[in-house]
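We store chain and fold; thus.
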Amino acid sequence: MACMKNNSYDCLLIVDFGSQVTQLIARRLRELNVYCEIHPYQNVNQNLLKRLSPKAIILSGGPDSVTRDGSPRANNNVYNMGVPVLGICYGQQVMMHQLGGEVKSGTGTSEFGKAFVEKKNSSDLLEGWFDIEKEQVWMSHGDHVSKIAPGFEVFGTSPNAPYAIIGDEKRHFYAVQFHPEVHHTPKGEAIGDQLTCVFVDHGLLRQGEANEVISMFRDNYNIPLIHADESDLFLNELDGQSDPETKRKIIGRLFVDVFQKYANKIEDAEFLAQGTLYPDVIESVSFKGGPSVTIKSHHNVGGLPEKMGLKLLEPLRELFKDEVRTLGKELKLPKEFISRHPFPGPGLAIRCPGKITRDKLEILRQADAVYIDQIRKHGLYDEIWQAFAAILPVRTVGVMGDGRTYDYACTLRAVTSVDGMTADYYPFNHEFLGETATRIINEVEGINRVTYDITSKPPGTIEWE
């Protein structure tokens, strides 16, 4: 459905400047029962604005800098329609640049992750906020507004963003430097006998995971399941590879080859269905042709080669993980399916920075198993969005007994999130971390040092590669 003038419903237009979280804006609006459409900034012209006749407009964030010649701008008609306009992050900077303000870049202007905004003046925009002295928000910006445009006033500031919340209430133009759309700004039955599931075991799974997945399917569904053990194929091609994008592309190519191999054995196969989610899409390619940048490629994004002769089905492509879990509950899927932590398609390959070897993968499996066992033992599994160990491409000197060791270091990662687009590290207490590190060093031969990763997303990603 498209927004049309004089329809019985209202439309909000989101102008996409390429933010990794633009789709989250739409998702938050859906939760508020507001219909909206996302359109790349370069497609937003006078004809589109006339056709959509939006009741309000949001300018999204983006990866560019308004200080760069040729960087994206909003169509000037956006500001002449007499409707409220909200600029978010890059959208704020674009608004200021176009309406007479100034934006600066350089040392000391950036903020990434958690920040706190202090209220300076009252506004209807802030209704329901600032019940406390400072509100937590999520920042991800390299530039900041250094001078606001005529007619604007300041409603909130943060340590590195003196114009964190601004507005021109007469024109109903508002702008924020942070991302209000992200979670860390607080405030089925099966298809039947037409389906054959192909479980590709690429040798990059966690300890005991292949048997666990097979048991989950066979204990709950009477669905044909092929266990495609192709671990030698994948590991032989990955042996010695260190570049993360090279790893991902090898895995993606081999996935296609393996699916093709097994599709040829299934009579009258016409479709390939896969569980691509929106966070995979936005990190890999631009949504609907927008200007977002590629963070890392995902093997399940980008379509299928013509040689496969299959049509691609991706029913979950525009949903987030928590929305998929809600859908799973509606379909009454077993809890063990729904509550599992996300696990990346490339598996342990992207939790093994540097060269991949079978020995390192086995060490990593054991360390990860101890870590997850600790999390379950302490009753923390369902509080955490995703947790895993990564083996680092360095060896460190240690001492065990009276002897010298020279083994690998590993890092532990655990994050809280709702949709995977932003995340914060889980605040384990030191007793848990100490106990877990001791177990890993004592039980896993090949590791003599354990660290804990306290990086948020942004600036980091959840996975290491």
User: Anything to note?
Assistant: The chain has a mean pLDDT of 83. The first strand starts at residue 12 and ends at 16.
